[in-house]
Amino acid sequence: MRKTAVLLLLAIPAFCQERVDLGMVDRIKAEAFERSKVMETLRNLTDVHGPRLTWSPGFEDAASWAMGELNSYGLEKVHEEKWQPAGRSWTLEQSSVELIEPRYLQLTAVPLAWSASTNGAVTGDLVLAPLRASFRDGPSKFKEAMKAYQAKWSGKLRGKIVLVSDPKVPAAQTNPQFRRYTASELADLANAPAPAAKLTARKLEDVDWPEDPNELGKFFTSLPNALMEQLYDLYDQAVNERGEFLAREGVAGVLQEDERAHEGMLFAEAAGGFKAAGTASPPTFVITAEQYNRIARSLQKNNPVRVRLALKAASPDRDVEGANIIGEISGGDKKDEIVMIGAHFDSWHSGTGATDNGAGSAVMIEAMRILKALNVKLDRTVRIGLWGGEEEGLFGSRAYVKEHFADPKTMRVTSEHGKLSGYFNLDNGSGKIRGVYLQGHEAMRPIFEAWLAPFRDLGVTTLSIRNTGGTDHLSFDAVGLPGFQFIQDPLDYGTITHHSDMDTWDHAVPEDLMQASAVIAAVVYQTANRKDMLPRRELPKPE
C-alpha cells in the first residue's frame, strides 16, 4: 500500500503538467521563420503608411491597409470600432526653423503635434522664458510652478519667439545605445521584488514622489491602474496649460529643448491639447540640445540672434472619433470564449512609428497570419485588437475594455467579461521576447513555463512576477482580466528610437520579430485549445 501511495505522489506532477503540442510548435516555427511576412508588413505600416498619429488621416490610411491584409488572410468580422474621446486631426505639410543671425543655419527641428500653423514664415524677438514646471514634479509642485510662471510672464510675450527651457549641457552618453539583456539582468528580473506595502492613496496628490529623477520609471511602474490614469491626465494638463497660456499671450512661436534630443536626434510628442474646441497651441518646435543651447547662451550674453520659422499643418476645426482595428478567427467547440492579442497601432509623427509600435502591430498581424496559414484547429475564438490612442493615454484599449468587459470605476461586468480567457500584448520595441511579466499572477507561472519551454533555445527564459506598466495590457488588468506584456530585449528602444525621428524600419531587427511572431502564435494556440480558461484572481474593487 505504501509503495502504491509513493508511485501516485510521483505521478502527480506529470498529471498536473500543462500539455504542450510540440508538433504544432514545430509547424508554427517553420511558418514564422521560413515564410515570414512580418518585415514586409512592417514596411507597409511605416515606409508606406507611417506615421500613424491618432485621429489623423495617416492612422486611417494605415488602418485601411491593415484591415485589407487581415481580410486577405481569411480573418472574419474585420472592422473598426470607434471610441471617445474624439480629437482633432493634424497632418504636417511643411515646416522649417532657420537661424538668421549671427550666421545662417538650417536648424534641425520638428514641430510638435497639434501646433497651430504660422501665417507664412515669421520672425520675432527671442525671449528666454524657461518654464520650470513638469508633471514629473507631482501635481502640487506643477500647479505652483505654473501659477508663478504665468504671473511672471503675463503681458510680456506677444509677438515673441519663446524658448521655454533652460540650456543644459547634454549628459555624457556612457551606456551602450544598443544592448540585449544579460543573463544577470534576466536573473534579476526573475527575482521577486522586495515586499512593500501596497499604495493606498486614491489621488496622486497623496503619493510621495521620488526625489531622484532616475527613480521615476520604477515609480510610474509601481502605480496602481487608477493612479496611472490620473498620471496620464496630469501629463495632459501640463502640456495643455502651457500651450493655452502661450497662445493667449499671442506668442509667434515656441522653441524647446528635449533632454533626449542630442547628437541630431529629435523627440516629438504633443504641443498641447488635441481638442478642436480648445485653444490651439502656438507653433511649437523641438530642436536639438546643441542648437538650442547655442541660441539660449547667446540670449543670456545679449548677443544678437534671430530665428525664422514656418509651419503648415492640415488641422480641420472639428474633432473625429478614435478607432481600434478588430478581427478574429472563429473557434470551434468553445467559440464563444475569446483569446485576445493586441498592440497599439498609433504612433508619434517625427519618425514612421516602426519600433513604437509598428513592430508590435506587425507581429500580431503575423501571428494571425501564421494561424490561418497553418489552418489550425482552434477551440476558442482568437481576436486581434490594434489600438488607437495609446500614446495619449491608452484611450483605445480602455474604451474597448469598458465597452465589452467592465468599467473599472464601477466594476460592473458584462457577460463578455466571463468569456475572455486572456490578453497578450507586445509594445517594447523590436527586441525579441525573453519572457513574460506575470503581473503578480502566480497561478500563471507553471502555464507559461510549459508553453515557453520550446523557445528556451531562442532566448525565452524568464518569468517575472513583477508588474510592468505604460501599455495596453493595463486596461485588461484593471478589470481583473488576465493581461500580459512580454519581456523584450531593450536594443536601442530607450536610447534612440522611442518617440524619435529615428523610429524607422531600419531599426527593426528581422530575426527578433520573427521569433516574437512564433512565440505569440504558439502561446495563442495553446490558450485557445487549453481544456480550461486561464486562471483568474479576484476582481479588483471599483476605482
- The figure for the number of domains is 2
Specify the CATH architecture of the largest domain.
3-Layer(aba) Sandwich
Helix-strand category? alpha/beta
Question: Which residue ranges are poorly predicted, with pLDDT under 50 across at least 5 consecutive positions?
Answer: 1-15
- C-alpha end-to-end distance: 55 Å
Give the proportion of residues in helices: 25-40%
Rounded to the nearest angstrom, the radius of gyration is 25 Å
**Strands, total number:** 17
> How is the CATH topology of the largest domain named?
Aminopeptidase
Mind explaining what this structure looks like?
The chain is globular, with a radius of gyration of 25 Å. Helices cover 35% and strands 19% of the residues. Strand 6 (126-128), helix 5 (139-153) and strand 7 (161-163) form a beta-alpha-beta unit. The protein contains 15 helices and 17 strands. The longest helix has 25 residues, at 225-249. It is an alpha/beta fold and 543 residues long. It has helices at 2-16, 22-34, 38-48, 57-72, 139-153, 183-190, 216-222, 225-249, 289-300, 354-373, 395-404, 445-452, 473-477, 493-497, 510-529, and strands at 76-88, 91-101, 105-106, 109-111, 122-123, 126-128, 161-163, 253-257, 284-287, 306-314, 319-329, 334-344, 380-387, 420-425, 433-437, 462-464, 483-488. The strands form three sheets. An eight-stranded mixed sheet has the order 1-11-13-12-14-17-15-16, sandwiched between helices. The chain has a five-stranded mixed sheet with strand order 4-9-8-7-6, with helices on one face. It has two domains: 29-89 and 319-529, Zn peptidases (Aminopeptidase), CATH 3.40.630; 91-190 and 199-314, 3-Layer(bba) Sandwich (Glucose Oxidase, domain 1), CATH 3.50.30.30. It starts with a helix and ends in a 14-residue tail after the last helix.
